[in-house]
Each structure stands twice: as structure tokens, then as C-alpha cells.
């Protein structure tokens, strides 16, 4: 028996209502804020991710699905959504459009990591990017959009975690203080943090190992080292969020997991959050476009995993509208009746009436039992007598009442 690869799963028909519900909310919120859809390839040049995400991150170091094609090119399945959008922004000259350019995507993301609840090796992500404006009003818009998206899903008890990690100019001093703090407790660090201390100290604050928590909690705060420009930017953002009446919690340990972030970083979590419970997050990446070969271009974005959203919708028993499904079941007895059923189904579908034909060769009782088990509200029955008289029996599956209707009048009767 073949099985889905570890860390992947099938989205079965009974689960599809959650996914279509979320996707429709995505489209609605993006249209409301003026974001347009973009779809990038599933795989990209490997250098795009190692250069943007950061060579010292777990994603590049441990989690990317990288392979060589038959031409010897190194390609990588998309491990995150922002870098491909930035590549497209540069490749297609979107900097020539009025700025900021607002884009959103729904995409599969691939990371080789230990599967757990809400985290898979192939997961699905909704994200959006606003490229070409550095004003904190745009930060507030992006956060407001994320907050409104989750509340539109009827998710409650949410927490907005907010921090500023500064820019290249003020981060040097902060990283020096952070390394000095951790060096004093290096013997107590987990093996991963001992490596991070040498290679990527900002990731130290993101460690979830119990032994590292006290050290992280007492670590220097990035907001105490902000330059005047970053401090002004962060103060204005907080003021805008208060104007929008979006509650937030300052979290000095919030750094996000990608190297390209600058200044604003944020996450939206359930109030009773665990180590891997963030519904979505994002932040500024003002240096990324330049790092990829473009001109200095400020930008900010957000991403959310659909699997975690589904988990939280189920956890909160949120009301999910059912998907539309065929309401008409066509039962038939005999070869002539089967031919009439095939023609009738085609005619009804052409008229916009969704219909399903019963499998041939079963008794009428068996066919109607199947209609009941599938949840059909109406059935059309055609037998030998109906073929001769040019009629059909319309049966209400909820009340068992039925009546005979001439075939020319059937479409009007069903509508």
C-alpha cells in the first residue's frame, strides 16, 4: 500500500469546506485592501533563498528541498513566499508602477522538518506583500489587514505580539550586547543555541528549549537599542495601532525566523499560545529588494499557514458554511430508463440544475437508500412506466412524498 509521504496529507472532500471558506475570506480581505493576486513557480533558483532567507537560518541550513535538474541547475522547492514575490517584482519591472505595489498569494510551501500538529513538510500559506513604501502607516495597514482577516473567520481570543528589531545601523550594537549576555551562560545553552551564538545570535531569542528560556527572558531588548529613525517609526506604528483599536503586546523575544526582517516584526497567536501555535506573522524587509539586485526598496509582508487556521477553526467550533452540492438524485430501472436518465441529467445540468445519476443495475430500494446516505433532498425516478408515458416521479427525500411530472415540465418543477 502506498501512503502519502511523511509530513504531507490528503485534503479529503469532507475537509474541503474549511479550505474553500478560508480561501474565500482571503480573496475578500485582499480585494478590500486593494491587493492583487500573484502566482510564482513552485521551484526557484536555489540562490534566491540562500541569499534572501539567510545561509545561517534553519530553513537554508536544514529544511530546503534542493535538487539539480537535468541541465545541472540547482533548484529549490519554495520554502517561503516572500522571496519569489520580490524576485517577480524585480524581474517584471513592477517598481515602475505606482508604489507601493500590493500583492497576495496562496501557495504550497515545502520544508523538511519534524512533522507535528499544524506543521507539515508540505503546507499551504496565504501571504501578502506591500512593496515600495517605508511609512509606518503601511505597517499599520498590513497588521490591520491580518487582524481583520482572522476576526472575519470568527476566530476569537487572539493576541497580537509586536516588536522592532531595528535596522542594520542600530542592530550591530544590539547584537553585540546580545552575544555578550548569552556568552555568560554559554554552558547552559542547548546545542543549537551554542551554534546560533557563533553564527546567528538573533535566532537565540527564538529557541523553544526549556533550558534556554530563562536566558532569553533576561536578554537585552532590541527596542532599547533602536536608532532615532527606528524609534520614531516604531512609536508612530504603536500610535496608529491604538487609533485602529487593535490591542497588542510588546514581545522583546519576537524576532521571526528569517534573516531579511528589519524594524517591525509581529505575530498573531491564540491567547493561550504554545511553542508552535502562531497563526501567522510578518514584518518589514526593507533591505531584501536591494539584496536581490534592485534599488533600495522598503517593503512589508505577512504570511499565515492554512493548516493551523483549520485546526483553530475546529478547536473553536467556528461555523463553516457547507459547500454547494448536487441536490437531485436520478434513480432508474431498466435499459430504456437508464438512457432517459442519461439524457435527463445532461439536460438538467445544461439548465444549471446539479444532478447525479444512480449506479446502473441496482434495485430502486438500493438506489434510494444511497440517495439518503448521500444527503440528497430530491430524487427523480424513471422506470418502464415512466418511459412509456414520458413522465418522471419527483420524490421529496425528507417527507417521502412524490408526484408524477411530465418530462417537458420537469425542469420548471425542479427549479
Concise overview:
The chain is an alpha+beta fold. The protein has helices at 16-33, 46-52, 58-63, 82-91, 136-152, 168-183, 191-199, 213-217, 228-243, 288-291, 306-315, 335-350, 364-373, 384-389, 407-414, and strands at residues 36-37, 43-45, 66-68, 74-77, 101-110, 122-131, 158-164, 249-250, 262-270, 280-284, 299-305, 328-332, 355-357, 378-382, 391-396, 402-406. It has an eight-stranded mixed β-sheet with strand order 1-5-6-11-10-9-7-8, with helices on both faces. The protein has a five-stranded mixed β-sheet with strand order 13-12-14-15-16, sandwiched between helices.
Properties at a glance:
BirA Bifunctional Protein, domain 2, alpha+beta, single chain, 415 residues, elongated
Low-confidence regions: none
**CATH superfamily assignment of the largest domain?**
Bira Bifunctional Protein, Domain 2
Average pLDDT works out at: 90
**What CATH first level of the largest domain would be assigned?**
Alpha Beta
Identify the overall geometry. Answer: elongated
CATH architectural designation of the largest domain? 2-Layer Sandwich
Descriptive overview:
By secondary structure, the protein is of the alpha+beta class. It has two domains: 13-167 and 227-315, 2-Layer Sandwich (BirA Bifunctional Protein, domain 2), CATH 3.30.930.10; 328-414, Anticodon-binding domain (Rossmann fold, 3-Layer(aba) Sandwich). 38% of the residues lie in helices and 21% in strands. The protein contains 15 helices and 16 strands. The strands form three sheets. The chain has an eight-stranded mixed β-sheet, with helices on both faces. Strands 13-12-14-15-16 form a five-stranded mixed β-sheet, with helices on both faces. Strand 15 (391-396) and strand 16 (402-406) form a beta hairpin. Helix 1 runs antiparallel to helix 5 and helix 5 (136-152) runs parallel beside helix 9. The longest helix is centred in the N-terminal third of the chain and has 18 residues, at 16-33.
Amino acid at each position: 500500500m502506498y501512503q502519502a509521504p511523511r509530513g504531507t496529507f490528503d485534503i479529503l472532500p469532507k475537509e474541503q469546506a474549511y479550505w474553500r471558506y478560508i480561501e474565500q475570506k482571503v480573496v475578500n480581505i485582499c480585494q478590500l485592501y486593494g491587493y492583487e493576486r500573484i502566482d510564482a513557480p513552485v521551484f526557484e533558483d536555489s540562490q534566491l533563498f540562500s541569499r534572501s532567507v539567510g545561509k545561517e537560518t534553519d530553513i537554508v541550513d536544514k529544511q530546503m528541498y534542493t535538487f539539480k535538474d537535468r541541465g545541472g541547475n540547482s533548484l529549490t522547492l519554495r520554502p517561503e513566499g516572500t522571496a519569489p514575490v520580490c524576485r517577480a517584482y524585480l524581474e517584471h519591472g513592477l517598481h515602475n508602477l505606482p508604489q507601493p505595489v500590493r500583492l497576495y498569494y496562496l501557495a504550497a510551501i515545502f520544508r523538511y522538518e519534524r512533522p507535528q500538529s499544524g506543521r507539515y513538510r508540505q503546507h499551504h500559506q496565504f501571504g501578502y506583500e506591500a512593496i515600495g513604501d517605508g511609512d509606518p502607516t503601511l505597517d499599520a495597514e498590513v497588521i490591520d489587514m491580518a487582524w481583520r482577516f482572522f476576526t472575519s473567520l470568527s476566530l476569537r481570543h487572539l493576541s497580537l505580539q509586536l516588536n522592532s528589531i531595528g535596522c542594520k545601523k542600530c542592530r550591530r550594537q544590539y547584537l553585540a550586547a546580545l552575544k555578550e549576555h548569552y556568552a555568560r551562560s554559554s554552558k547552559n545553552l542547548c546545542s543549537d543555541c551554542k551554534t546560533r551564538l557563533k553564527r546567528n545570535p538573533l535566532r537565540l531569542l527564538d529557541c523553544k528549549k526549556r533550558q534556554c528560556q530563562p536566558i532569553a527572558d533576561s536578554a537585552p531588548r532590541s527596542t532599547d537599542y533602536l536608532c532615532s529613525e527606528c524609534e520614531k517609526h516604531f512609536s508612530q506604528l504603536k500610535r496608529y495601532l491604538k487609533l485602529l483599536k487593535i490591542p497588542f503586546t510588546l514581545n522583546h523575544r519576537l524576532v521571526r525566523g528569517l534573516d531579511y526582517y528589519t524594524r517591525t516584526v509581529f505575530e498573531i497567536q491564540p491567547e493561550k499560545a504554545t511553542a508552535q501555535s502562531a497563526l501567522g506573522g510578518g514584518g518589514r524587509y526593507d533591505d531584501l529588494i536591494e539584496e536581490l539586485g534592485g534599488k533600495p526598496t522598503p517593503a512589508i509582508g505577512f504570511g499565515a499557514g492554512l493548516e493551523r487556521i483549520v485546526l483553530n477553526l475546529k478547536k473553536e467550533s467556528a461555523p463553516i458554511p457547507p459547500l454547494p452540492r448536487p441536490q437531485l438524485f436520478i434513480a432508474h430501472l431498466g435499459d430504456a430508463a437508464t438512457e432517459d436518465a442519461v439524457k435527463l441529467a445532461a439536460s438538467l445540468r445544461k439548465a444549471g440544475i446539479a444532478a447525479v445519476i444512480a449506479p446502473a443495475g441496482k434495485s430502486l430500494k438500493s438506489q434510494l437508500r444511497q440517495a439518503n446516505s448521500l444527503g440528497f433532498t430530491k430524487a427523480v425516478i424513471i422506470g418502464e412506466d415512466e418511459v412509456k408515458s414520458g413522465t418522471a416521479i419527483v420524490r421529496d427525500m425528507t417527507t417521502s412524498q412524490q408526484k408524477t411530472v411530465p418530462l417537458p415540465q420537469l425542469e420548471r418543477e425542479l427549479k
